[in-house]
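Changelog entry: the Eukaryotic translation initiation factor 3 subunit D record was regenerated in this release. Current contents:
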Amino acid sequence: MVGVFEVGAVPFNPDGWGPPESTTATAPSTTTTLPPHVPYATFSRSERLGRIADFTRSFSSSNANASNRPSSGKPGSADSPFDFSLDLDAFPLANPDDGSAFRLVDTKPTPRPKFGPKWRFNQHRPQLPQRRDEEVEARKREAEKERARRDRLYNLNRSNQNQQRREAAIFKSSVDIQPEWNMLEQIPFSTFTKLSFSVSDPEDLLLCGALEYYDRSFDRITPKNERRLERFKNRNFFKVTTTDDPVIRRLANEDKATVFATDTILATLMCAPRSVYSWDIVVQRVGNKLFFDKRDGSQLDLLSVHETSQEPLPEAKDDINSAYSLSVEAAYINQNFSQQVLVRDGNKVSFDEPNPFANEGDEVASVAYRYRRWKLDGDMYLVARCEVQSVVEVNNKNSFVTLNALNEFDPKYSGVDWRQKLETQRGAVLATELKNNANKLAKWTAQAILASADLMKLGYVTRVHPRDHFNHVILGVVGYKPRDFASQINLNTSNMWGIVKSIVDLCMKLNEGKYVLVKDPSKPQVRIYEVPADAFENDYVEEPLPEEEQVQPPSEDAEGVEANGTTTDDKEIEAQT
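Regenerated structure tokens:
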């Protein structure tokens, strides 16, 4: 038989919530069946209601663990006034073992997250809502606006600098394009970067000249014990073009090759995609032979400075830091440096023939010419005259060395002061030079590879004072293996030969005559012009540089540049250029 649960009469309380204080005063005629001595906890409307009764509580376990739990004062706890037991026999549906039959609604507030390592790795806690801190968001918005403003200014300055350099390059055309010249081809540099061609090891046909040994004491130079750059006015330097070389003429008569050039011309072609300034190369097709020449007083005889830099150089006529003035200064420094770092004790390494451009009794600079031949195609060979400046003894064997010098004219243009950074941050100095003089360093590396030099020495030469372009000091000398250095500057030998091969194939399709390759002064491309046979002769009028670039070179007290077998003073340099 199922027991009946009688609720009884519930008195009405007109004064508030809960039972009245005295049921007899409110409803005297009403009898109540409420259990006596039932405690009651008062509450108000603003309080939240919790559980009225917990039928899932296990009284046996609660009584057993009552001593281990702290007193909470809540209903159902040990010290609660509502702690009483129900007669479960009277309620057979409320089976304590069947807990799945009851579902309770948890009205407790969600606990606030405890930020920290424990909460971060707790997989059972619910995912917290993302906090949007207004102050943090405001900072982010301000930083984003500042970053966008800097990017706009950077792009604006960069476009202005590039525009200035492009406009300046228009006035630096290496040769004046005459109206009667006929343009045949226009080749963009983008096509050069995709070319590739492999050549076999070259063959040495002849070695001429004599070399002095390299002085290893210069490897120990630091900015703290710098050395003054000396001047060598009595030594003769030769910048002879291809067709004026008696050895190349002899090899051409013997049909040793089809194409003839010098290492300077080949390096200019190989590194053409890196060039910014204008340059020109004369091409002569004679019979089935091809000669690559340079003009007298060509810019190929000089060395560019800050050619690939984003910082434009001043264009003032009398400024010592203009592009042309720095090129002349770099030529002085490079030639004198190549002779100062030698052991000048009279001990020389001589080769098959003496210097082919020197007269008997002349004091000649230390240089050796290697006439080498490469096979380009089936019966097409290329012969080039390559130069090395010194030898060094390694393991009782003589190794060829090329000598070149980087020059610093004003630290504010490069952003790196060599006197302070060269000894402690040599890598940063070299990286800056690779950025500002990428074409010049690539050409030096290409010339060293063409000559099969075992070592290339780079000197760091700076002015005694930024406004004094007459006196210089050597701050350090660093040696590299050419092929390792080529990999470091991302110079691909297969791409170098691919450029040469494509230009040779293009020129071999031309008719007999004279042509000129001109690097466009404002665009990354090269043009081929057909020129008259008497072009670039002594009576031919040309303007390699505008009047604005004709600055005065260093005076007679500066380091002398000797070219074409004679000591060249300032007036002769100005006349040549």
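The first helix runs from residue 23 to 26.
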